[in-house]
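Illustration 12: Glyoxylase-like metal-dependent hydrolase (Beta-lactamase superfamily II).
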Amino acid sequence: MFKQIPLGPIQTNAYVLYNEKKEAIVFDPGAEGQALVQWLNKETLKPIAILLTHAHFDHIGAVDEVRDAFHCPVYLHEKEAEWLLDPALNGSSRLTGRTLTTARAADHLLGEQKTLTLGDFTFSLYHTPGHSPGSITYYYKEEDVIFSGDVLFQQGIGRTDLIGGNQDVLLQSIHQYLLTLPESTVVASGHGPLTTIGAEMDHNPFLAAY
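Figure caption equivalent — predicted structure in token form:
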């Protein structure tokens, strides 16, 4: 089971995946940390890890609040190890009139490993750069869902005009890894509604043109 929770001024989707034991994985806690912690406590969920799809500012704003409230480790791709600490890398320094966004360093850096097991949860990991150099897609086969951050959206793809972005690389990542998954696979994107691999194969204009 998972819950989609849009947070912050850009309505970045955080996701909470949980099981019958009330253990939870929190993906991309981007803002409104106090509200997110309150919701988790209300639902009596026990986060055992925070998984970041990438480290842009709108995906990391509540990382430390959730980490400190539940004493759970943060996972991030090694290619973005410094991004939590650096507003120039995570993009928050580009925005005028907003507080710079930072967080403490990740507890665990992910490299080229293909799987990650946390408690009763096992994920297949796909390094899917293009939107950012360390973007990771987490596939949870038990529920046929990917948590893909800003790689793929309903009839859209991630922007590629930020540091390390490259549209050709992004499209290659999507075709190499995501479009090889079952068409029924739910795409839990970083912004906007849920979609499926099959729907994007049929209707996404960016993929059709590749």
